[in-house]
């Protein structure tokens, strides 16, 4: 039986195109969108089914339907160290907190407990699509894939690969990394769940030998698989990569065939112009992780510069570099950073330099553009925009039912733009009263807890 939602429907069609229907409708059947727009009666007249069989959900003036959020870069195991070591730079934080924690995922019971919680938490916060890093451990990475499938999230999951420059207790051989990746891809494909996909995951150039990077590039090519990694996050890290590979960070990946149109690279804080051009030529997307970039003192990423250079950009919490599993604070931090950058530029404090846009013409990121990054931008980065990220006939119904009335009683009716703005600036998971993936309601009971 089709369901039709009637009320405010909003989404984006591109970075600069926001679309909304104030008295709109969105009809869903078998998990797919079969109608969306403003003229419900005209749509209904063209349908063959008996209108009395439709289930109608009438939204209130304080509610709207939005596409689900995409967290295109999140480390599932690191949920267990959420909010710790936030004064450290990347490499110290990895050695002090992250590697000892990730090594514990050899224990399947521990892994099951953490992975169950992180998937519950991300769904509660409206993440309908996630790209997860797991750990080096194959068995527990499969536990994550099974947990994602059980809870009904759409996700890409990667067995992390690291064979060098890592602590003795958390490193694998090249053969283990290669065989583990092959086995993981086969096991995920065997789940035969269209929502769950494998993603080839070299941790970062620093922890993978040239040989391993090349073998992983080859695996991704043979299986037509997605690829994810980190790029140009931290100045010290970039220098070490240059010392080892004798070339730029992007070239190190490109030599291994790892830059493809199904590749996402997280951070990209300090990319050189030539690296941006290379990523663009390969169709590789970047994932902006503003909370993490601030927490781990990585730097200010000029997201407008990335967009202006033709790169597809999504948003990532980068938990636990990021201090929230929710994309909402990530949107806010992206907006805040863009404003700070504008202040610096206008105050003539240079050094963040955009090659093709003089500082005085810098445009602050708008909340609608940030909303795009958090929805369709992420889906596009992951080459899944034909399925999710916005509302169109034929796409899956991956959506949030948002209610802003629980924040306070508005003294007047809010416009559609104001509903979204208010949600972004003051909302949290309690305002997301329904989460749907491929038409199935997946949100557990709302709990009030800090994000
Ligand atoms: N670079 C390599 N590993 C990591 C990680 O776990 N988090 C972040 N933020 N950067 C990384
Ligand atoms: Fe990361």
TrEMBL record:
Pfam families: Amidohydro_1. One of its GO terms (biological process) is guanine catabolic process. It catalyses: guanine + H2O + H(+) = xanthine + NH4(+). CDD domains: GDEase. Pathway: Purine metabolism; guanine degradation; xanthine from guanine: step 1/1. InterPro entries: Amidohydro-rel, Guanine_deaminase, Metal-dep_hydrolase_composite, Metal_Hydrolase, Metallo-dep_hydrolases. Its EC number is 3.5.4.3. Binds 1 zinc ion per subunit. Signal peptide: none annotated. Residues 64-442 form the Amidohydrolase-related domain. Catalyzes the hydrolytic deamination of guanine, producing xanthine and ammonia. NCBIfam families: guan_deamin (TIGR02967). Belongs to the metallo-dependent hydrolases superfamily. ATZ/TRZ family. This is Guanine deaminase.
